Amino acid sequence: MIKVKNLKKSFGDHLIWEHVNLEIEDGQTLAIIGKSGSGKSVLLKHINALLNPDEGEVIIDGVNIYDLHYVELRKLRQRFGVLFQGAALFDSISAYENVAFPLRYFTDQSEEEIRKNVLHSLDLVDLGDIGNKSTAELSGGMRKRVGLARAIVMEPAYILYDEPTSGLDPETSDEINDLIIHMSENLDITSIVVTHDIHSVLRVADKAAFIDQQKISWSGTVEEMQTSTHERLKKFIKASEYQIQNY
Amino acid sequence: MEILRNLGEYCLLLYRAIRSSTEVSTYRSNLLAEMVKTGYDSIPIILLTGVFTGAVLTIQTAYQLQSSFIPKTTIGAIVVQSMLIELAAAISSLVLAGRVGARVATELGTMRVSEQVDALESMGFNSVTFLVVPRILSGILMFPILYVLASASGILGGITAGVLFGRLPATVFMHGAREFFYPWDVAFGMIKMIVFGFIITSVASYKGYYAHGGAEGVGKSTTQATVLGCIYILLADLILAAILL
Angle CA(B215)–CA(B217)–CA(B219) in degrees, nearest 5? Predict the structure, then answer.
């Protein structure tokens, strides 16, 4: 279980958000939505302490992660998979090696076991054997899939998705959404998805939190979101629906 | 204020690098790759720099010492000592500030802005151990070797130019060189190169590691890494000469 308590973050004099409180049950998928520049990705980076807050706590399985020593924090991070917005693949090594990367450093697996696990992860994201393709040869959708395969290869308990469908065509976006649902349902992974894609939220999330005006101005289930009377949320959803309808 | 903040960040990065330098298994493979890129790949430019520096120095020294009262062996002595004490180290390092410093800053800067550094951290790696330590160590280890090559090629260039342009025979050049050869000069050059290697790679690592602002930010970091690397080399050169000579 992940609990975010009274989090506040500023960059210099610029307040990003404050009084952020969230709770994500095991196996649930939470979508963090909001306009570009509202600090969604910044919030995501606080969940595994890539960034530190000015105030507040992030409690994972009863432990405030900001109290952890760096060595303990690194161990905790191994329980997380992260899919970055641009996939953040290491461009000096092949796509296959990207997926094998954490296994080589954090496990004692033989080359055969590594290959088996890498191919299994690639299968889960519908990529199969991508051989020794360099990351430069991959399309946007394939990069996200390889990034996701790398995120799940260590069998994490939590996955953080930063704009998983941004920059992708609707068909590929839907495929990525299917993968997120698959991860959550079949691997019992707790997920946090940062997105401004309402279509994606409706498909993958159990709960949603709306960042607006430097705070979580609304949170609830996805069903509640659709019937919410919160004016700014309604406006945000309406703008997204307009985009979907006009596609 | 900005200078103090930068200095603090630089010191903190070095502290993290030194503390984590015992985790050899994390950076062993990266260190070997970095040694190749910093050392082996720099050999052609270092040999070229050395040969031309030695050649020009010989011709210019011969021009300055056109007197029947000064023996021609002096030319060899001056050229070799100048190469060993100063030129092989300083000129090579200024060239390497561009070649190695720019590469390190660009690589790390690109990794930073494309979130590859965050990806490493989020997997549970210490990104400083993985990325910064091998780059600094490769500078410290490979620069002295490049110094030897720069010195040797400089002396060879000096002899060749002396013979080729009719300034002095090779035997006379070497006689003068041997007469005024002090092992300490080589040790001094080596010490300088270790310091310069550290300066170039650590400044470039710092600039790259903390790069921000997309492609423009990486370009800015690379330029700063190269310019600051050159300035700090000149400063360190003066300080080392004042202390050690």
Answer: 70
From the list B114, B115, B122, which residue is nearest A48 (CB)? B122
Is residue B128 classed exposed, middle or buried when 0-12, 13-18 and 19+ CB atoms within 10 A define those classes? Answer: buried
In the block, which residue shows the tokens 């060189």? B177
Rounded Cα gap, residues B9 and B219, in angstroms: 20
Q: What percent of chain B has pLDDT over 70?
A: 100
B124–A70: do the CB atoms touch at under 8 Å? no
Q: What pLDDT, in 10s, does the model give residues B155-178? A: 999 999 999 999 999 999 999 999
Cβ(A183)–Cβ(A189) below 8 Å = yes
Task: Give CA–CA dist A42/A16, Å, rounded.
Answer: 8
Write out the DSSP string of chain B.
Answer: -HHHHHHHHHHHHHHHHHHHTT-HHHHHHHHHHHHHHHTGGGHHHHHHHHHHHHHHHHHHHHHHT--TTS-THHHHHHHHHHIIIIIHHHHHHHHHIIIIIHHHHHHHHHHHHTTHHHHHHHHT--HIIIIIHHHHHHHHHHHHHHHHHHHHHHHHHHHHHHHHTTS--HHHHHHHHHHT--HHHHHHHHHHHHHHHHHHHHHHHHHHHT--SHHHHHHHHHHHHHHHHHHHHHHHHHHHHHHH-
CA B199/CA B139 separation, integer angstroms? 9
Q: What pTM did the predictor assign?
A: 0.89
Question: Which residue, A220, A155, A158, A202, is CA-closest to A26?
Answer: A158
Element (H, E) at A4: strand A2-11
pLDDT in tens, A134-170: 999 998 888 999 999 999 999 999 999 999 888 788 8
Selecting from A82, A89, A101 the residue whose C-beta is nearest the C-beta of B122 gives A82
Answer whether A105 sits within 8 Å of B118, measured CB to CB.
no
The verdict on A242 touching B (C-beta cutoff 8 Å) is: no
Strands A55-60 and A63-64: what pairing?
antiparallel
Query: What pLDDT, on the 0 to 100 scale, is given for residue A186?
Result: 82
Choose the closest CB to A88 out of B114, B124, B126.
B114
